[in-house]
């Protein structure tokens, strides 16, 4: 039932015997209408506030939904970005590992090839050096055998020459230098019999051999001489320069020197060059 303040003020009651006081009833209805009007105004105000509040709540709910959607979108985007970044990092890590493995494998292969090449070259050099050493050993043994045989022959020849010359009392002047050379040769043979063989010794031996041939020719000529000088006069003979070597002897000595010079040159080159790995530093 909707009652307005105006209806309350204009309300008319039936008159009856001994009823309520008319003035009091009007006054109460008047006050009631005023209070009712106030309540209506308050109700309208509250309704307006309620509607405003509901509208505000609706707006807040829309904002909340928007914020929720934004937050959800941000969360989804962050998760996607994190997942994408993780996948990219894993991909880069795998690529880096593959590249590092490839570089390591290539470096190992190159190092292996370098080492194998160095070992191969070292083996070739060692084999060449061993061959040269064996050749030099053979040359040395041959020279040593020739030296022993030559020393023995020269000693016997010198002793034989001195024995033959001791039978005579004087010699002609042109034979005296050869006789002195024979004596010196005999002393050198006795002194140098135990010394090691070298190239200079071979050259000296060849000179002795040449002197031996000259002395042998001179001794054959002395068998027919009548005037022989005393043996004591041999010490006064002036030394004469040794005769030059024959071309064949010089060629042989030069050939014997070449292997030693070649080995010395190779050793100097190896020392100056250093080891094979020092070249990569």
Automatic annotation (TrEMBL):
Q: Name one GO cellular component term.
A: cytoplasm
Q: Does the keyword Cell cycle apply?
A: yes
Record carries keyword Cell division: yes
Keyword annotations from UniProtKB, A to Z: Cell cycle, Cell division, Coiled coil, Cytoplasm
Pfam entry (one): DivIVA
Give compartment(s).
Answer: Cytoplasm
What segments bear the compositional bias annotation Basic and acidic residues? Answer: 252-261
Q: Taking the first listed entry, what is the main subcellular location of this protein, grouped into a coarse class? A: cytoplasm
Region Disordered, as annotated, extends over 234-281
Single Gene Ontology BP term? cell division
Q: Which residues form a coiled coil?
A: 119-146
Check the record and name the Gene3D superfamilies matching this protein.
Answer: 6.10.250.660
Q: Which InterPro entries match?
A: DivIVA_domain, DivIVA_fam
Q: Which NCBIfam families match?
A: DivI1A_domain
Q: Which family does it belong to?
A: Belongs to the DivIVA family.
Q: What is this protein called?
A: Cell division initiation protein
What is the species of this protein? Roseivirga pacifica
